Amino acid sequence: QRLAHRRRAQAPKQMHNRLVLSAARTMNLRVDELPYQMLRISDGNKLVYSTDFNFSFESLTAYWLCGNKHLTSALLRERGIPVPDFAVFHAKDLPSAFSAFHSLRHPLVVKPCFGAGGRGITVRVNTLSEFRRACYRAARTADPIIVEQLVAGRHWRITLFDGELVFACERLPAFVVGDGQSSIEALVSRRNSAISVRDGFPSAYPIHVDEDTRAALRAQDMTPASVPAAGQRVILKRICNAAVGGLTRDVTGCLHEDYLDLARSAAAAMGARLAGVDIIGPDATQSIGNGGVFVNEVNTTPDLLLNHFDVSGSGNAIASVGRLLKMVFAAGPAATLS
């Protein structure tokens, strides 16, 4: 199992590097493929190193700050940026765990303080038995554990470089649409088989029917054997990560300035040059108005493939990364060739 996991972990990294390499070559930048899956990108005057969406222009401090969900929430709150109410404890500290469970308004989100790709996260936790299972799941990924109040709203990813918009999208949880005849399990299999490849990259990641899927289905009074009505959309995951089959809807051209300003404030608070800011709110194409909008996370290694999973099929990740590289080489500081 460890060997298989290691092979699975390498596949996205190789895909991420291919995306950056493709975008760089489209812009006529020089790219050297170095050992250990490291890329060296140069325009003749400056150079940048990259691997797995990690770039050499990023501050190591920002990388570590944003990688810690507790520190991120605490620092954002300190700057007056709205975040969900939260509590933090170590897995073996049962009094603190129970205190967190009882002090926060339910439902809850339980997740490890460190991690990415939705690993170890459980949402819509209401009962003590659900909380115990969620803490165990989170602790298997990392310790300590952060518990947050679940806030309602749609999920938006706004990716910035030095405060300038690279792209923005709505993140959609994995789903299938019923035909009135097929079971959900059959619909998932059909959907996975229909994943196409555009520009050398898959249009979606496969959906695996796991415990999170079953929990999402139970909330809809369904099981994998259920047959949804024709046209009925069935949500299959309680998280919206692309790594578990989620899709996106590009809103780069219609993002409201309020959401953009909030994302800029969050990135600045964390000291991140490249930042994927996750915002929960009703509609990122409209004014924030009276609130109800929260910053959930700030990522210094944001998934630059996201708008390749655009439900319209027109998202262009190569163009987005090209836009990022254009910003990078127009800005500074970066390593200068001697």
Protein described:
- The chain is of the alpha+beta class.
- The chain has nine helices and 18 strands.
- Strands 1, 2, 3, 4 and 18 form a five-stranded antiparallel beta sheet that branches. The protein has a five-stranded antiparallel beta sheet with strand order 15-10-9-16-17.
- A hairpin with a 2-residue loop joins strand 9 and strand 10 (164-172).
- Helix 1 (2-26) crosses helix 9.
- It is globular.
Topology diagram in text:
Layout: H1 2-26, E1 30-34, E2 38-42, E3 46-51, E4 54-55, H2 60-67, H3 69-78, E5 86-89, H4 94-103, E6 108-112, E7 122-125, H5 128-141, E8 145-149, E9 154-161, E10 164-172, E11 175-177, H6 184-193, E12 197-198, E13 201-202, H7 211-218, E14 233-235, E15 247-250, H8 257-270, E16 274-281, E17 294-299, H9 317-330, E18 335-336
Antiparallel strand pairs: 1-2, 2-3, 3-4, 3-18, 5-8, 6-7, 6-8, 9-10, 9-16, 10-15, 11-14, 12-13, 16-17
What is the β-strand count? 18
Tell me the radius of gyration.
Answer: 20 Å
3D shape: globular
Low-confidence spans: 1-10
The mean pLDDT is 92
Q: Fraction of residues in helices? A: 25-40%
What is the succession of H and E elements? HEEEEHHEHEEHEEEEHEEHEEHEEHE
- Quick one: biggest sheet? 5 strands, antiparallel
Number of helices: 9
- Measure the end-to-end span: 47 Å
Summing up helix and strand content along with how strands pair, one would put the structural category as alpha+beta
Binned strand content: 15-25%
